[in-house]
Amino acid sequence: MNVNLQHWRLDVDTQGIATATLDKAGESANSLSAEVLREFSSLLDQLDVYPPKGLIIRSGKAAGFIAGADISEFSQLDTAEKGRALVERGWKLFNRLEAVKYPTLALVRGHCLGGGLELALACRYLLAVDESGTKMGLPEVMLGIFPGWGGMLRLPQRVGPAAALDMMLTGKTLDAKRAKKMGLADDCVPPRVMEMAARQLVVSGQPRRPLPFMQKLMNGPLKSVVANGARKQVARKARPQHYPAPYAIIDLWQKHDGNALAAPEVVDRIIASPTARNLVRVFGLQERLKGFGKDSDFKARRVHVIGAGVMGGDIAAWCALRGMTVTLQDQALERIAPALKRAQSLFVKKLRDPLKARAAFDRLIPDPQGDGVPHADVIIEAIFENVEAKHALFRALEPRMKPGAVLATNTSSLKLEDLRTVLHRPERLVGIHFFNPVSMMPLVEVVEAEGADPTVVQAACAFVKQIDKLPLPVKSAPGFLVNAVLAPYMLAAMRAVDEGISPETVDEAMLAFGMPMGPIELIDTVGLDIAMAAGKQLAGGADAPKCLLQRVKKNLLGKKSGQGFYAWSEGKPQKGSAGSVPAGLAERLVKPLIDRTERLVAEGIIGDAELADAGVIFGTGFAPFTGGPLNYRKSV
Ligand code: NAI
Known about the structure:
8-stranded mixed beta sheet
């Protein structure tokens, strides 16, 4: 057919089945820009004139189906009219797609997110390809916006409102099998038969699985019950003044059947909110972190971890989870056993498939003798925080390592410049600093010592990216970025307790500011002894707070000992009422953190202000809706 298209290709086979292939020009992944949607509309015009027997929509990219709307277009939404026009564009086009006379099918392989899933939902059939990269979801809420192109209407119809709201309010994604099980996908097939299966299904006339009766009620007369429940759930995690989008999603579904155009004031408010602007910025920062190490062709297959304690054990498990073959060394097998036990539960929880969990477990090899050293592409040292111990280890390691292997230390507080003095090639030592708990924390600091080999630093970044963490390059300095900014913040929080403000009030002040956890609860979680040691190193000679000293003396070390600032029961702190928070308390507590961040940028410890914001958000959970500490300071 002779439509002049840049991004789409339209083919019709001998049976009259048309295939529209999206292969966005000049990009490695598909996104739905205004251009792409305009072309899709003219493609539908063409098919109106020559209706096919069926239409299959698929991607021409290796990287997946469609990653979502084109995020770069969001930053151009400077007026309410433009915001509404953006919503209208996709809403109307996908309504039109849903209404075409011929059957339609989305062949979903790889990422199918946001606007991509909204397009797929407007097709009669959704065929999911069963492979690990296939993921379907509506993550708009994470950008501070809502799925306005029909997602809020069609996802609840397809999978029922409870599951749909859960997906839309958390941004979580489904793999192919789960999508089939929940009724989002009509079928789920392996890649080798996908074309044939798509052609059969699109003309099959097979009716869609109806929504169970109860789900229909919940999407109809019982909407308000479901909506109220969802509001309560959201309120536990996000305050409306910080994160208005999840509340808007519930309202739009409940009152307007997911049609945002029926509530233009909501569209204006959400799109113009600083939260949406900042979260889109944070998304961009995250992409920037993912870009580190992409120029390196370093690829790790085998990892050797030394020290199977809190950190080393979990680092080894994480690497095995991410497909590497890992040898884990410690002084004795008994020391490795607890790490293997934790790894087992991580694999079961994350992989949800006994065969895959088994395979991951097989990749994690206890290695008390260090037999893995000569084969490893990356060696991570995570033994006791002691210079002599690390020296002895490095001396023994270096002659046994492969020439191109990366040698990394996970040290939090020792200087790389001191640790590497025993190496013949000191420039090869790099810091790869994970945070606790390893499986939950997205950031990893990659520490460059004075005079380090830049290719090693690049390779370390590439490795961090390979295991799906966000690498943040930092210069070697006490506390690097994350611990250096947390220390003065925790100190300020404990000084407030010394002044007589209750831990509950201090925590509430920062929760109201938008932190995911209060600083006193954070101290209880990391351990008062660790906070004390960090304070000694990072507080610049200031006296330890009395409230901390008293508790450490009595061996009240926080969560791990059952009592710190709070009593802990079943993993939760038992908090009393917070009472009223003194005016200006949050600003006072957060000021030292922001000051320190500024200083680290000025001193060149961290590349620039954007990276500092990214590091503090992904390393400490600093209120993402503010766009990070430095962005926050600029905005007030
Ligand atoms: P840990 O005390 O839980 O584990 C250390 C392990 O290393 C022990 O199992 C010990 O048997 C083993 N080990 C000691 N010397 C050894 C040697 N010569 N050969 C083989 N194994 C040896 O310590 P943790 O907390 O895991 O810390 C390890 C490193 O990670 C330290 O450098 C620490 O600064 C750093 N780190 C710790 C964090 C934390 O939150 N605990 C966070 C980030 C870094």
